[in-house]
Amino acid sequence: MQLTLWTYEGPPHVGAMRIATSMRDVHYVLHAPQGDTYADLLFTMIERRDTRPPVTYTTFQARDLGGDTAGLVTDAVQRAYERFRPAAMLVGESCTAEIIQDQPGALALGMQLPIPVVPLELPAYSKKENWGASETFYHLVRTLLLPMAPAPGTPRAPRGERPPRANILGPAALGFRTRDDVREVRALLASIGVETWVVAPEGASVADLQRIPEADLNICLVPEVALTTTSWLERTFKMPSVRVVPIGVGATRDFIAAVGTALDLDVSAALTAESSRLPWYSRSVDSTYLTGKRVFVFGDGTHALAAARIATEELGFTVVGLGTYSREFAREVRAAATALGLEALISDDYLEVERAIAAVQPELVLGTQMERHIAKRQGIPCAVISAPFHVQDVPARHSPQMGWEGANVIFDTWVHPLMMGLEEHLLTMFREDFEFRDDSAPSHLHSAGHETEMPMRAGQAPPADAAAAVAVAGTTATVAPVEAPASTPPVWTPEAEQELGKIPFFVRGKVRRNTERFAEGHGVRTISVDTMYEAKAHYGK
């Protein structure tokens, strides 16, 4: 565990807490010291939930370690049952309690409570939060449904004349926009005549979980949470599943088509009735302003893959970096990165991610709360697309990521910062033009001094557009740079870095690359302001 660094995921018992918090009548008894109770704040502060998580802690202290810590477990379980009367109980331990080996799950099972008790074995020092949520949801569903499982080889009963039903599995507390996404997916299903049967774990009860086999289809909406469960339901109850996550216009079409195929429905009308404005923009002349914009994508597996597809196929961006902190989805992300000609970044070290972003200098970062801070330090716009996130990424308004409306939200979130940046660039570019001077009269009055460009004020920095022009010219330069020996990159002086910061963000990376290429080709080891303008003159020929 990286105790000295911020991490993308918490320990696996936080994942279990997410499942308990999502449901209505499930209680979680956690064998943990008082210091491990901090996770309560994640739900009340970030998601603005009006109740604390349904968790009872044993809260053992140092002086308890010399006595009967197992007794603390049974006492806590009994008190929790008597006070809350849950329909099912989860029992596990935190990373700290794992060391003392009390096996709280086994102790709780031995108490013979009149409700289902699910013991959780979540290895805190080898697994993390999403895996813990997935395992908890799977073991809870399996415990409740295994007594109802048909004999092996039993065919699934036909649907008959009733309307088709689908379960939506995976939405959980602290999932990125999942509550809004469920609303959109419900609407998509209704548009093709499919009834949403059970949504779980978010908002579900134990009785709801027991109704899962009554549906005709399982939708694995959040693979990080529900993939293991849907796979088990396929094997045990012969329930088909759809694993297409409808993020983006293309994926939404694929989702509707997959549901139609699984349920033998005609969905052609729904495929032609899209209401997203994103395709309109992509077909418009305005989209050419952003064609080829360099984007770095990082997040959980599901959202990173979706973002890479939208960026390349629907907005015309160029993905220059793709990665995930979810090692369980490393194979899928590596395959997507290879298709884009990239090497995937599989890491849970945000410092490594920061170095990767700095190396490619993208014009937009699509990432987590971590990448928001990284991009801010590097002066690059960022849109948060994945957990972990903070309270500003839980808007009060309806703001999904999935479905047609989700595509609109993505369009607003990704495109507008770049377009606003373009406006800022134009204002900066012409700030020193005589017609844009604050002390100038309107151009139609033909005031004196408007025939020639006004000189710079004493001590005034060169206009930012001068260096920015390097970026444009550098892409089509006819002068081949001199081959530089393999060595470390040139060092920028503080003055040069300051000058670089004056250049609009969406061409800044290109200016940096062109200047470094010029410096390396001419044996310059320290880049100064003069070097920047020499590079401009070189590539501007």
Write up this protein.
This protein is 44% helix and 11% strand. The chain has helices at residues 12-22, 40-46, 69-84, 95-98, 104-109, 129-145, 178-191, 206-210, 223-237, 249-263, 268-271, 278-283, 301-314, 330-339, 350-360, 369-378, 403-429, 464-474, 494-501, 505-521, 529-539, and strands at 26-31, 55-57, 88-93, 117-119, 165-169, 195-200, 217-220, 241-242, 294-299, 318-324, 345-346, 364-367, 382-384, 491-492, 526-527. Strand 1, helix 2 (40-46) and strand 2 form a beta-alpha-beta unit. The strands form 4 sheets. A 5-stranded parallel β-sheet has the order 11-10-9-12-13, with helices on both faces. The protein has a 4-stranded parallel β-sheet with strand order 2-1-3-4, sandwiched between helices. Residues 440-482 have low confidence and may be disordered. The protein is built from 21 helices and 15 strands. The two termini are 54 Å apart. The protein has 4 domains: 12-128, Nitrogenase molybdenum iron protein domain (Rossmann fold); 165-271, 3-Layer(aba) Sandwich (Rossmann fold); 278-422, Rossmann fold; 461-539, Helicase, Ruva Protein, domain 3, CATH 1.10.8. It is globular. The chain has 541 residues and is an alpha/beta fold.
Query: What profile does the largest beta sheet have?
Result: 5 strands, parallel
* Tally of separate helices: 21
CATH class of the largest domain: Alpha Beta
Q: Average the pLDDT over all residues and give the rounded result.
A: 85
Low-confidence region ranges: 440-482
Beta-strand percent range: 5-15%
CATH topology of the largest domain: Rossmann fold
Q: Tell me the name of the CATH homologous superfamily of the largest domain.
A: Nitrogenase molybdenum iron protein domain
How many structural domains are formed by the residues?
4
Q: Count all strands and give the number.
A: 15
Fraction of residues in H or I helices: 40-55%
Computed CA radius of gyration, to the nearest angstrom: 28 Å
Tell me the span between the first and last alpha carbons: 54 Å
Which structural class do the helices and strands define? Answer: alpha/beta
Shape: globular
Cross-sheet strand order for the largest sheet:
11-10-9-12-13
* CATH-scheme architecture of the largest domain: 3-Layer(aba) Sandwich
